[in-house]
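Dear V.,

Thank you for sending over the compound details. I've combined the ligand you provided, magnesium ion, with the protein sequence from our construct and run the structure prediction for the complex. I'm sharing the raw inputs here so there's no ambiguity about protonation or stereochemistry in the SMILES, which I know was a concern on your side last time.
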Amino acid sequence: MAAVQSPVLELDGITKTFKDRRNGEVTALRNVSLALFAGKCVGLVGASGSGKSTLARVMMQLLTPDEGTIRFNGEPLPKKLSSVQELDYRKHVQMIFQDPFASLNQVHTVAYHLRRALLRHDLVKKNELQPALKALLERVGLAPAEAYLSKKPFALSGGQRQRVAIARALAVAPRVVVADEPTSMLDVSIRAGVLRLLNELKEAQQLSMLLITHDLASARYLCDTICVINEGRIVERGETDKILNAPEHPYTQKLLSALPQLPTHE
Ligand SMILES: Nc1ncnc2c1ncn2[C@@H]1O[C@H](COP(=O)(O)OP(=O)(O)OP(=O)(O)O)[C@@H](O)[C@H]1O
Ligand SMILES: [Mg+2]
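Below is the predicted structure of the protein with magnesium ion bound, written out as structure tokens.
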């Protein structure tokens, strides 16, 4: 039997309530527990407003939960990180957003974005910068790197932009990548390439991934397990094939029949 692996990142009993003057209180997460393991991807699926992005933001420590614990490498994180702890956490846990256009700064070049990530965390010496930039771009399939380094995001295609955002996330050699609908704004024809890249990176670098998606074909391709979230609560979880082929919870059954089902091209 394989040795039991311990989680890289773990949410344990997380609850988060927003107090909104107009809508009153909204409990976006209710006692949510979820664990990410090296080289594995967990899919998070649920209807709009079910709490998926809130979970991602809690995991990224962009939001403080009201209750519960986050453990990284088995160590509980303090409720509020100091700026040094936060910088260290960002070195290990990175996020890829839905809209690469919004997440990259239009006035700066591709090289600037990647250089900033590398230098911010003191990962390379100045004289090693150029080869490091080239290697990063090549790793995400943007080759020859020289053709991209001096370009600004608006001069790239949507797929190329998302690859730059992925390269920026990878610059710090993270252990965990949280991707909130990373391909939903991309043209269907280029989604498969970006998914394939994420899958290769997951395996080659033993990344732990959380993939938030509405697209079952993406979930089937990339995720080892799936968690189904409804009104802030995880209602069902299990191996991808099991959840997608034989869902047990009535909410999962309803959700799967409502989600778009693209044919897989693999
Ligand atoms: N900053 C906030 N202030 C108040 N309420 C919020 C805030 N952020 C999220 N919410 C509420 O929390 C709930 C969960 O929102 P969340 O963004 O996590 O949903 P989601 O599952 O990511 O939805 P979608 O699929 O549409 O992206 C919603 O009811 C939302 O209105
Ligand atoms: Mg969301």
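A first observation: The chain has eleven helices and ten strands.

Warm regards,
I. M.
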